[in-house]
Amino acid sequence: MSIVRNTTLSPTHELLTDLLTAEKAPCISLYQATHRQHPDNEQDPIRFRNLIKEIEASLQLKYPSSKTNDFLEPFHSLANNKEFWEHALDGLAILANSECFQIMKLKQTVRNLVVVADTFHTKPLRRYLQTVNRYQVLGLSLNKIMLFEGNHHMLDEIELVSEVPLTMTQALGEELTEPHQTVASYGGVGGSSTPMRHGHGGKKEELDIDARKFFMAVDRAITKYYSKPSGLPLILASLPEHQHLFHQISQNPFLLKECINYNPDFLPQKELHILSWKLLEPQYLRRIETLTETFKYAHSKGEGSDDLEQVAKAAIAGRINVLLVEEDRLIPGKINKTTGHIEFCELSNPEIDDLLDDLADIVSNLGGEVLVISSDQMPATTGLAAIYRF
What we know:
Oligomer: single chain
Strand content: 15-25%
Shape: globular
Order of helices and strands: HEHHHEEEHEEEHEEHEHEHEHEEEEHEE
Distance between the termini: 46 Å
Radius of gyration: 25 Å
CATH architecture of the largest domain: 2-Layer Sandwich
Largest sheet: 5 strands, mixed
CATH topology of the largest domain: Nucleotidyltransferase, domain 5
CATH class of the largest domain: Alpha Beta
CATH superfamily of the largest domain: eRF1 domain 2
Structural class: alpha+beta
Number of strands: 18
């Protein structure tokens, strides 16, 4: 057996699509909550080894010891990699079969879970990747550019690619208006500042021209390398005078009208997270509320269902437009890909995955929208809710 030891990657929709095409069973999916800081991260390798034991127990139900040991070898190797565990984030996902060993560090916690099946278990990754509660924040000043990505749990700074200009000088180079005045904005994290100008013969008009050019360069780069690939809403965090200019020149379709009125240079990241999620949360709740009401109406008209058997048949027929699945609900079983018939089994069986996860894969592959949400947001008690196309 040849294991391809991939480097650690960040989850993407493209990667998720590739993983869904995996056909070499067994497909091993491991999810684990991890920790960034000492001493909390000391227990992470121990918990990881316990999850390996669960994988082993499942594999031994079908495969001989020699095969099982081959599958487990890269897991044991990672368990002994001290440097890896010292640089963990909030969660870990590993998807492995005879052709790949894909490691993904996650910037939010996940439930500890092991699934050995004919396909990969991807529901936690769907939850992680869906844009309904994720967003980006652009910290903008004349001195520095920063980009963050977050959700209701966290906010992390993104290391920008070299194509994104970080300063006005880097963006404009020889096009910088001369004589140019360097501006330093003094003042706290509030919405006002006193510009201190240095240099000789500089004019406000010249500074405005440079600022416009700088913001245009930033807007183009952020749109191309971050907003369009991710599809995430973008919040601008800057002083009010910069907000107006940036919105005036921006061509980014993901830029929100609502802004954070603080100088990002002086705003602690924790406070930035609180302010950004406070701005995004109403939109997130409206989206969930709209889907809930749409489902209830569709269900009353026979154009939706929360019955597992009915939804499975509709999924196979390609009739589902939107599927809501419960984040932490597991219903072990197998779906007949021809008839939609359901067979309930034990999750420890190395050929069995979660039915909700399998349904999500089917609906997604046939062009439907899948959202993974918490139990308190679900409009049904069965773990799923489907809105039909017709």
